[in-house]
Specification:
Layout lengths: L5 E5 L7 H12 L6 E5 L1 H11 L3 H15 L9 H11 L7 H10 L12 E7 L4 E5 L4 H8 L9 E3 L2 E4 L9 H6 L4 E5 L17 H19 L6 E5 L20 H19 L5 H4 L4
Parallel strand pairs: 1-2, 1-7, 2-3, 7-8
Antiparallel strand pairs: 3-4, 3-6, 5-6
Helix pairs in contact: 1-3, 1-9, 2-6
């Protein structure tokens, strides 16, 4: 198995994933490039774009794509009547997946995972096997669609004989996969939720959110605690004022996209500078 020394790990998080674009820009401006990119959900989308072109210019284009998503006609656009109609017809989800597939077809420069400039993998949850599934070859758009199929918002994606849902259900911040593939310096791009302590739910609709957060954070904490001694992981700051409670679930609230990109860029650039992490940091692993 090839050794991918430097990995970018991009976690899930819906609209909060805009912050990952700022983190990517800061990393590449510092001369830090990935040998491997792994992603979950919106992190799979961001990761696919950067694996296709790991350059500062690509992050500028990706930020523009996010700004386009914030305008009318984005992936989760549509009137209340449209969403209700889709829910009535499907009985399982609120949005058509056509807009997301069209966005990927328009902007991804390659069709297959193995044609990307940087090795890339993304994860989805197999319904039939109740297990994580890693996409390593084949259709890039299918893999990203499967990884980002948020339950209740988008339909499960059928590939072969299996159906897939959002990778965040099984591995929201896939540090362990990067280590398994040989990474020894890992840059963790997360959307900020792990930076805010959880509190007991006070409303009925907060119960499911808190339960999901416990599960995702427990997996991430366990993976971080199990890192081998020769692996250095940098959990990059989002710089964002992460919303609490149900505000985290406002997946269509894209008004702060530009602000999230810029705050994450500034926070990550400051972190890298404080740690002395530049292109030379690839050889030394940088700070702890």
């Amino acid at each position: 198995m090839p050794q991918h020394r430097v990995a970018f790990v991009l976690g899930g998080g819906g609209v909060l994933g805009a912050g990952e674009v700022g983190m990517l820009r800061a990393l590449l401006e510092a001369g830090i490039s990935p040998d491997l990119v792994v992603g979950t959900s919106v992190g799979a989308l961001n990761g696919a774009f950067i694996a296709a072109d790991p350059s500062v210019e690509a992050t500028v284009r990706l930020a523009e794509i996010w700004r386009r998503l914030s305008a009318e006609g984005g992936v989760f656009s549509g009137s209340l009547a449209d969403r209700v109609g889709t829910a009535v017809r499907s009985r399982t989800h609120l949005h058509r997946r056509g807009p997301l597939r069209e966005l990927l077809a328009e902007h991804l420069p390659v069709e297959r995972i193995e044609d990307l400039a940087v090795p890339f993998q993304c994860v989805a949850a197999s319904i039939e096997r109740a297990a994580e599934h890693w996409f390593t070859t084949g259709s890039l758009s299918d893999a990203v669609m499967a990884s980002a199929a948020v339950p209740g918002l988008l339909a499960p994606v059928k590939i072969g004989d299996e159906h897939y849902l959002d990778g965040g259900l099984v591995n929201s911040i896939p540090v362990s996969r990067a280590v398994e593939l040989g990474a020894r310096t890992v840059y963790v791009l997360q959307v900020g939720r792990i930076e805010r302590p959880l509190t007991p739910p006070t409303k009925p609709w907060d119960v499911a959110l808190v339960a999901f957060e416990i599960a995702r954070r427990h997996r991430f904490a366990a993976d971080m605690a199990a890192l081998p001694a020769d692996v250095v992981a940098h959990v990059l700051p989002s710089g964002d004022e992460t919303p609490q409670g149900m505000a985290q679930l406002r997946y269509r609230d894209v008004r702060r996209v530009g602000r999230r990109v810029e705050r994450a860029h500034a926070a990550t650039a400051a972190y890298l500078g404080a740690q002395g992490l530049t292109a030379a940091g690839r050889a030394t692993g940088g700070g702890a």
